[in-house]
Amino acid sequence: MSGWKHIFDDAPVREIEAGAYLFRREESVRSMFLVRSGAVALERPLEDGTPLTLHVATPGTALAEASLFAAAYHCNAVARSTATIASLPRADFLAALRNEPDAALSLIETHAKEVQAQRARIEILRLRRVADRLDAWLNLHGEPEKGGWIEVADQIGVSPPALYRELARRRN
């Protein structure tokens, strides 16, 4: 199956600085985006103004695809670091998917894998004990690469010190 990212090969690219908005909640949906470099967070402000991070898009990740069939964006897109973003008008992206069934299937496959990963993460987060969360994560992913434990802590919803205490307990 061919991929879908080639649809962005000739798309205009722009750079946004850390902290800048790519789009804001309730703006009309006009474009589909592909992150080429950097990181962009999809955030929704809570009542107290605290941003709730829904997703962080990294290089090679589509952004705003959940809004393809919406009138307005449901969240803000904020650069976490300087980011390079390719963008296509929504109509052009949808036309490419209609004309290239393999690309459409590839996009569906990409999102199916993301849904599976999110469902697994939700189940891990439902576990009460750090030990149980860690066991579940390791069962799914195996040991992280060197320096990857902080990311594991974030993914299982515990502080790095809590994770390191559990790792130390296991070593003893």
Automatic annotation (TrEMBL):
InterPro entries the record matches: cNMP-bd_dom (IPR000595), cNMP-bd_dom_sf (IPR018490), Env_Response_Regulators (IPR050397), RmlC-like_jellyroll (IPR014710)
Q: Name one Pfam family in it.
A: cNMP_binding
Mind telling me which SUPFAM superfamilies this protein's record contains? cAMP-binding domain-like
**Its domain of life?**
Bacteria
- Name used for this protein in its record: Cyclic nucleotide-binding domain-containing protein
Xref: CDD domains:
CAP_ED (cd00038)
Cited SMART domains: cNMP
